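TASK: fixed-backbone design
INPUT:
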């Protein structure tokens, strides 16, 4: 009888430990829109951008049931970043661009039944990749990496113990790129000496394991 009781207790402890280790990690895939704001500078450079669409892959490791560390990688298809300078006021210069994001964050979640609101923040690197084709009006544009910060707030709706739907607003704060055209052989100067806040609405699906 004692052996049976011991086995039952042991199984209960193992089941509790296994359950405590469930869903310590998750991965998510999301669709994104990258909205870069209009920016005017003290150097008489005006920057306009079209919206870029792409995807975001994220990995979270749960430190506690309500806090986690997150790693992100994002990539957009392409958009146009247009520079107007005193020299090009009649014919602004467009650079077709792909944008990559590499970021990490601390995530704090709040549990309300199936809804789990969360906030997050951390460092980010945004890589601006010029596409050198007929859509880019200066072939002297170069790849540029700007280091800044990422922050966000959203909610996850639990569809099942393994899946949830996530909706979030994210912001990327970094310097406005000039594609190293501030001291180039082309004669253009795209430097703004400004920072901007890139808005990034996100919707996707996460899988817990």
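OUTPUT:
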């Amino acid at each position: 009888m004692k052996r049976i009781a011991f086995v039952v207790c042991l199984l209960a402890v193992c089941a509790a430990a296994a359950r405590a280790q469930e869903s310590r990690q998750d991965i998510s895939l999301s669709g994104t829109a990258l909205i870069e704001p209009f920016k005017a500078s003290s150097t008489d450079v005006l920057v306009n951008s079209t919206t870029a669409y792409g995807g975001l892959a994220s990995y979270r490791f749960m430190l506690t049931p309500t806090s986690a560390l997150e790693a992100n990688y994002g990539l957009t298809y392409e958009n146009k970043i247009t520079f107007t300078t005193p020299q090009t006021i009649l014919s602004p210069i467009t650079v077709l661009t792909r944008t990559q994001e590499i970021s990490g964050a601390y995530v704090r979640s709040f549990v309300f039944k199936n809804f789990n609101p969360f906030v997050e923040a951390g460092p980010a690197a945004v890589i601006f990749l010029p596409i050198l084709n007929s859509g880019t009006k200066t072939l002297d544009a170069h790849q540029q990496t700007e280091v800044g910060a990422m922050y966000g707030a959203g909610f996850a709706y639990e569809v099942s113990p393994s899946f949830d739907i996530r909706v979030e607003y994210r912001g990327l704060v970094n310097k406005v790129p000039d594609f190293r055209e501030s001291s180039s052989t082309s004669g253009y100067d795209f430097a703004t000496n400004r920072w901007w806040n890139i808005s990034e609405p996100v919707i996707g699906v996460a899988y817990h394991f």
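COMMENT: The longest helix spans residues 2-20.
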